[in-house]
Amino acid sequence: MKNLNLPTNYSVLTTRINPAASGSACHVFHNNTWGMAYVNDTAPAGLSAVVRQAMRSARQASALLTCPNIKLPIPNPTTKTIMSPYYKNGQLTVTQPQLTELKQLYNAFIARMCPNLDTWQVSAQAGCETKTLSSSVGAQLYQVTTEITLTVSLTAGRHTLQESFYYAADISLLHSQHDKICAAITRLYEHLRRKKEAIHIPDSYSACVLSPKMAAKLIHEAFGHLAEADYVLAKAPLAPLYCIPPLSNKITIVDYAHTAFGKTVPMPMYIDDEGVTAQDVTLIKDGQVNACMTSLETSALLGTPLTGNARAATYQNEPLVRMRNTALHPWHDDPAQILASIENGYYLVDSSEDGGDPSGEFASKVSIAYKVKNGQICESIKDCVIWGNAVEFLRSITMVGNDFEWQIDDCTKLSGEMTQKVRTTSGAPTIKANLDIGVL
Q: Does the predicted model carry a pTM greater than 0.90?
């Protein structure tokens, strides 16, 4: 990478390589426009060619467009090497027979402990991603990450519930979590069993208790996207982020780069796909909107700090402003007391589909939920939908639990006519909020 003769007369040049996908990409910013090129090759000749093509693309675009003058910030260069210990001699240490044994283990557990299912499925997959990045300002990244994904799907009648577990590709670590995974499968089975007697509910605006998993998903969809700088620019000067009034001082939301609460986060990022050092971003602090997530260009346009939130799904995509590890901090409310405070409402456990847009509107299809009366969890309710406006949702949060869980998921974002899917992590405690809720 150091022998590519990267141009110094360009504001920024980033080359990303992913050997797992056998491709390279280059992004150049010149005369207020971006040029991009990629090639399905990682050899030196291919890299040199993709750099030249990106430079030509930038020159051509700048000759055709009249854009406002943009002076990109110059990030401090960072060098980082991150090697997974579960990737040796060019391959994962996890073997296919070990994954097959893992599936057999949980298939046997479900057959023994979850009677009266129509069908079930257990899948176990191991993956590896390798990324090399170099920028004209001196950033260097070589990163190899590995992962095992265990997915369990249970079906009874018309209902199917699914849960996935993500771990580093260490088979012994996964086996050490056996009791925890079995307990989660047992809970999933109990939710499915109770759905057989699920009741319909009327449309209403109701007090709801959200489990940490459900709260994390809503923080991501209802608020997180509003704090991405490209969404802010799309709606400026009336961006929903700027319309959020002072909230409860119990609410602090941070998008973490690589370390949170003294531990490495589930999806650590040290350098983003523009070669910028990843920084933690406190989005809301003690109920007050504080900052947004930025890329090089959005930082320049908004005049806000550079945070290192530019991410591309593959080498064929342009970097977009994306969340990384976004967390609603826990507070001091006891989850049991939060539930006890509901006289007539709902307990929302999990959802199967979630979505939000730059206007601040969001909706989720809730797959696991219960009626709550006088602080007691009662009947399971049929699949329903919650919807609302991010500002009103945040204003309605009155209780924040002292528990906390991370939720790993894929997030899709539109870029022109294409969509990019990246892995993100969201975290939250149990919360109490008011939501519009109704049947499908």
A: yes
